[in-house]
Amino acid sequence: MTNAYELNNIKVVHQQNCVLDIPHFSIPSGKCIALLGENGAGKSTLMSLLAFTAKATEGTIQLFGQHIASKLSPMQRRRIGMVSQQPYLLAGTVADNIKLALKLQNIESSQHAFLIEQTLQQLNLTQLAAQSAQTLSGGELKRAAIARAIAYDPDILLLDEPFSHLDQRHIRQLENAIQRFAQQTNKTVIFSTHDQPQGLAIADETLNLHAGKITQAPLLNLFHGTLSQHDFNTGNLIIHAASDLANARHIAIDPKEIIISHQPLDSSMRNSFNGRVVLIAQENNTVRLTVDCEERFQVIISPESLTHLNLTLGDTICLSFKSTAVTVF
Amino acid sequence: MTYFIDSLIAALELITSFDNSIYRIVFTSVSISLIASLIAASLAVPAGVVMALNTFRGKTFIQHLLNTLMAMPTVVIGLLLYGLFSRLGPLGHWGLLYTPMAIIIAEAILIFPIMMNLTITAVNSADPRLKPTLISLGAGPISLAIHVIRATKLAILAAIVTGFGRAIGEVGAAMMLGGNIEGFTRTMTTAIALETSKGEFELGLALGLLLLIIAFVLNFLLSWLHRPAT
């Protein structure tokens, strides 16, 4: 499988702050990838680099194996469709905006009407074709921007926070549109979101970004503090970690690796904390518990386990996990 | 007070009688300023758009230079061009001194930094998403510039109109380079200066009123262009 992108020694520095630092990373083609991270993690910066609308301070990016020296050629540009977090539609109608994209991509004018019609149908926007872009609602605007980006049939679709500030109905419509595009042969979709469950639900793979760095750790149960001789101090808790990485400032604990029990367990697990259940949320076939043990932990269990343990809000329970379940970075 | 009111009435009579000598001066003034504005705009607008859209070494220096040139006194431009166009000057053989073309060149130079600076401001004040959106849709440098100009056309038009307003009200360079020759290089401002010095206050006042009317029409046009969409 070829790589859509290959990033090497990428650094983006803004006002002496390194906002993105990726030594090496490849993004395979033909996949739907969710870029996860908190606000300010560097998701939009990375998306701008992948769209080649911004330049890295250092490092190189390869697009489908081709090194990009400065600017994309028109053919390379046609391979990427980008929709920013707050899409900008130019003055005119929705159809005018799609037509502009087709014109700029040098697509023959004889095909414009067909491609506009086809794209509007894909995004359920046919009835809005002649509507002024300035009068669209938030959801319509995002769908119109996606229509504009996919009208010229790019190989890669980049979506920066496509679901933010949308209601459930519009989110579902967008999810369907993204999945339809991703299901086509060899299309790569990369979308950023701070909503981890949503990313996991749609994407084939997830990419976690934290403080400008790509991390393998899931970004749930993310704590900040200092590590000293395997003990990570969050300020409220001391968590034992297997790693003793120098200069580590963050840890993350996979919510599926946390065991819950009513009484402390006599086991090899080095971390054990008592806490109170403050939230129980059912998501698809899993249950997400939020447990307050001075720090708030997210724990994922099955609905059967919830029934078996007979947990209710306010119950005091014990959380246990191995030091190897703690990812240090 | 009576003198002023009498002069004002006489000036209004001159305007309403469509006195040929007055409207000849107005025509000369407007045509010179219009041509100067078109020449300056054709250079300043593309230059301003290119400068606003790109980052390059020396950009800050150029920005400072433009700001300095905006404040340059018109007589200094007149003086420099006089030195170039006078018989003994390096461009004396072009025979431009005391011609409308000399005034056009001076006014174009005078308003170029104003138009360029205001164009840069217009592009910079456009939505920050405009440029990355156009680039991501495949716009090359030329189509990017064209679409940015389209999106900021009213602000750029305001820059051109402001330049025109500055040109038509200019007196120092027009006097030095045009020579205030009746029926040839006499503009409204040079005529006002001359007529007032001769004691012909009515004619000067009539021209002054017409200049004010032109300024009012320009401002009205700008406000109309910037009216909120209904």
Describe what this molecule looks like in 3D.
The complex is a heterodimer of chains A (329) and B (230). Chain A is α+β, with helices and mostly antiparallel strands and 329 residues long. In chain A, 23% of the residues lie in helices and 36% in strands. Chain A contains eight helices and 21 strands. In chain A, strand 13 and strand 14 form a beta hairpin. The longest helix of chain A has 15 residues, at 168-182. Helices cover 76% and strands 0% of the residues of chain B. The longest helix of chain B has 34 residues, at 20-53. The N and C termini of chain B lie far apart (47 Å). The mean pLDDT of chain B is 91. Chain A binds chain B through residues 48, 51-54, 74, 77-78, 80-82, 84, 86-88, 90-91, 100-101, 104-106, 148-149, 152, and chain B through 127, 129-130, 132-140, 143, 147, 151.
Q: Any key phrases for this structure?
A:
heterodimer, A: 329 residues, alpha+beta, 6-stranded mixed sheet, 5-stranded antiparallel sheet, globular, B: 230 residues, mainly alpha, 76% helix, 0% strand
